[in-house]
Design goal:
Number of helices: 10
Shape: globular
Largest sheet: 6 strands, parallel
CATH superfamily of the domain at 2-15 and 74-125 and 146-239: HAD superfamily/HAD-like
Active site: 8 (nucleophile), 10 (proton donor)
Helix content: 25-40%
Binding site for substrate: 19, 99
Pfam families: Put_Phosphatase
Strand content: 15-25%
CATH architecture of the domain at 2-15 and 74-125 and 146-239: 3-Layer(aba) Sandwich
Organism: Origma solitaria
Order of helices and strands: EHHHHHEHEEEHEHEHEH
CATH class of the domain at 2-15 and 74-125 and 146-239: Alpha Beta
Cofactor: Mg(2+)
């Protein structure tokens, strides 16, 4: 009996968006209008690339970025939840699928020593160049019309499950925990026995309820959470069964 927990990162594990938080490093903590207005829907990674160039041009160094990123608050109850999962790793495989980037997630999880809770992190690869600029790339290429160009979370989940099956690992249930519009695609891939846990008041919850109203509900069960303690209560019930 093994369960797979799939976490989004921004507004799910942490209570903010890591990509917009980095703007605190910019001069006067804001971006020039021209840069701020350059975002085009579906091309967030390219937009972040331009922000990282701007920060680098303004002399913002890696250690300052790291200090800033590790001040992001975790979502209410999340530290307790991750501690609980860490104590029960024989029952839970745990992955992150996020539109953030490897550098930010690594910094934030290592600062609180929670990187060991997660078996794998699927996110946009990032690194510092020889000139000290942070660079970010697309996670993969895909053909899903619903998802941003750089990341289809359904594709990530499907490929992970296929790879696990090849290793002889299958899951009693998948629990998907997220908040955003880009979490809907993987949630629609979940089966009847699985469970989607959208964060209360966020886009994913709204999109799931719109689907139910248009009589094309998701196949899986849906349980809304507002604090990670709600998620922990559900997981405790699961392992009692």
């Amino acid at each position: 009996m093994k369960f797979l927990l799939v976490f989004d990162f921004d507004h799910t594990i942490i209570d903010e968006n890591s990509d917009t938080w980095i703007v605190k490093c910019a001069p006067e903590r804001k971006l020039p209008n021209e840069l701020r207005n350059s975002y085009q829907p579906g091309h967030w990674t390219e937009y972040m690339g331009r922000i990282f160039v701007f920060l680098g041009d303004n002399g913002v160094k890696e250690d300052e970025m790291k200090r800033t990123m590790t001040t992001i608050p975790f979502t209410a109850g999340m530290i307790d939840l991750l501690g609980f999962i860490g104590e029960n790793k024989e029952l839970f495989d745990c992955i992150i699928v996020s539109d953030s980037n490897t550098v930010f997630i690594d910094w934030i999880l290592k600062a609180v020593d929670f990187h060991k809770v997660f078996d794998e992190v699927f996110t946009n690869p990032a690194a510092f160049s020889s000139t000290g600029y942070l660079t970010v790339q697309h996670f993969h290429a895909h053909h899903c019309a619903k998802c941003p160009k750089n990341l289809c979370k359904r594709k990530v989940l499907k490929e992970f499950l296929d790879k696990q099956l090849e290793r002889g690992v299958s899951y009693t249930q998948i629990v998907y925990i997220g908040d955003g519009g880009n979490d809907l695609c993987p949630v629609m891939f979940l089966k009847k026995n699985d469970i989607a846990m959208p964060r209360q008041g966020y886009t994913l919850e709204k999109k799931i309820s719109q689907l139910a109203q248009s009589l094309s509900p998701v196949q899986c069960s849906v349980l809304v959470w507002s604090s990670a303690i709600d998620i922990m209560s559900y997981l405790k019930l699961l392992i009692k069964e």
